[in-house]
Amino acid sequence: MGFFSVSVVGRDRPGIVAGISRILFELGCNIEDSSSTILSGQFAMLLVVGFPGVSSVEALDRAFAGVRSGMGLMVSVNPVDDGDLSREKGFRGSPHILSVYGADRPGIVCRVTQELANRNVNVTDLNTQVVGSKERPVYVMIIEADIPDDFDMPGLEAELESLRKELHVSISIRPIETLEL
Fold first, then answer.
1. Which of 6, 17, 149, 168 is least surrounded by Cβ atoms within 10 Å, i.e. has the fewest?
2. Which domains does the chain have, with CATH numbers?
3. Angle at 128 between CA 127 and CA 134, to 5 degrees
């Protein structure tokens, strides 16, 4: 079985997920993993699919010609090495949520994520949006991060305090309660 990543982007409208999943079903593909969202009216979806008996990007890519033209979607297909697939979220440490709220301004994502990267913290999910009124917009960023077990939390909290002052935002961090299944 060949594995592929499929990315889909286009103006949001009903039926995109149904159209993409129908094509994959008719080809006999299995959707291994997927995520989709709407960002400022633009639909974005990323899937990892298993395509039995086929290892050709071209064969899978051709199947999306109809939704490309009919729905105005950009669809990209790329091979994924079977050895690169993981069924687990992959936390090596403990999951945490970092929340940032404040006036919208360039550099918030860059500064906060760079500090996490400098400390070897892996960002596993990130969502941002501007909420509130046009007159009083508020920037919201929610980060899910993997904090290593032997981590210097006081050092990170001190740096986050510095970022709070520099960026004029509110920043909080807390562990995520996890369930073992």
1. 149
2. 2-83 (3.30.70.260), 94-175 (3.30.70.260)
3. 150
